[in-house]
Amino acid sequence: ISAQDFAVFRQTYEQQVLYLTGQIQYQQQKLTLVESTASNALQVAAVAQQQAMANEQQFKRQRKAHKKQRQSEENKSPQSSEEATEEVKPEAASMPATPVSLLSESVDEHQDSGQKNNKNTPPPPGPGDIPKMKTNEKKKILKKVDNVSGKKLHIQDLLSRAKEFGEMIPSYIHEHVKSVATECESMMSTAQQCVNDMTGDAKAMQDDLDAVANKAGEAAARLKSQLDQAHTMVGKKGVCTVGGSPPQPNDWASLVPCLGSFPRRVHVSMPCCGIDGCGTALQMMSVPFKANNVMDVEARYGPYLEAHLPGCAIHVGHHGDVNSINIDELERPVDLLCSGPPCPPWAGNGSHGGQMDMRAEVFLSVVRMVIALAKSGELKAAILENARGICNKLPGQHESFLDQMLFILRQEVPEFHWDKVELSACDYLLAQQRTRIFLRGLRTTIAAGIPAPLSPFGRRDLSEFLDHGLEPIDTSTLTEVMRKNLEDADKDVKKMVKAGTYKEGDIIVIPLDRSTGKVYQRKCTVNIVPTLTTTNRYLFITSVNKGNSKKGFHRFLHPSDP
Fold first, then answer.
1. pLDDT the model gives residue 66
2. Rounded Cα gap, residues 343 and 271, in angstroms
């Protein structure tokens, strides 16, 4: 073969070897984890065995003591020869008892001590009989009903307090908490009816009451967290006073070209959906669509996604693990697949493990999903989004992970066009530092190539998004750590102003949950917010003012800031 063909073959072979090496290391990590789990299981089994032996010894001692007690009672009040014979025979024929048999014998003997004659004891209820409730079971159920009632009253109190904050508390949180309160009322009514009739499965009823009480506690904690956040953001406790008219978000529908009419709804698959940026964009562009395969491992996204995508099956928590989904289990059909696999393997703040990071397996699972759907003939387009670091090469690599994926997709799915583009949110009228890489694919029968992304819309200053009517926060309401972090940040801001880096009127964004000298150090931004996530909710904004003039902004980023 020619030297050029040999070079291409060698490059392809090296890429395959590198990929397989990564897979081997990943499997070795999994094997280490399994071995660790097995070791822990053996330790637990050993402890359980020791406990079982201790229980067996305890049962033997209890049986021996009980036998002595019966013998002493028989000596005091001798029984008839017939009754004595009936009691001696089982002991003579008994086998060495196991812990389980000892426990059953102890229970039987305890029942016999309370019933001199058990010949008239009624048989246990049959499958069609409704079990009768005992008095002690009734007391336990009533106690649990009181617990659920207290949880419900707590929820109602939080809901009444949430009215003061209006739209600051998300509507899906309101609806979820209200539904839990209704469920508590229904369960309490059912339990009370069973108690009044003294019928029903007491154990199952207690379990149901415990479950609804736990659910109510979680709902109350979620709502209280929102209330605490609202209190902190406005710098007050009790009443929220929002002055002025908050700015309006971008009108995206007026910024995109007319897409025309659609003969039917577009079926959009959303693995690793997050908070559903894809669905939000489609809704703003008035595209009729039906979402399927809505999956994410973050269970806390569930209530929001259910409210945002009504009528769609939502898979969150362990049910939303893309790695555990088989291809033949996917919801069909799929016209467009839009996914944002986890970015920590390639993020700037991560461990920079790249494809060696176990979490990178999710990206590979989504790629396999794309290949399978494309080969089935129904997939028409695909978009995969991730951090800019996915284009970086690891030491010893000839290509980045994304370039390797592009090579595989072009080889495996030649019926698609494939490319990658880099876009920044700040170029599209958003005052946010968010640069992302988009891997795009389009079926060749639809167009001769993938259309270029929309041209930048322009830039907007951060002050255009902020609600100028909100008052500065009372720093005494902050935690001690946050006050310390704010004081340190203020000192740094003053140094920057003195050096001429910051000027009067600039708006500085400070993450108050970050400290100097830590692993994740504090990084302030000027006139733009950092990448917004569901975890960096402690972003503090402050204005640069000379002299003793009053600060224009000195508060947390607020939900009314669009």
1. 78
2. 14
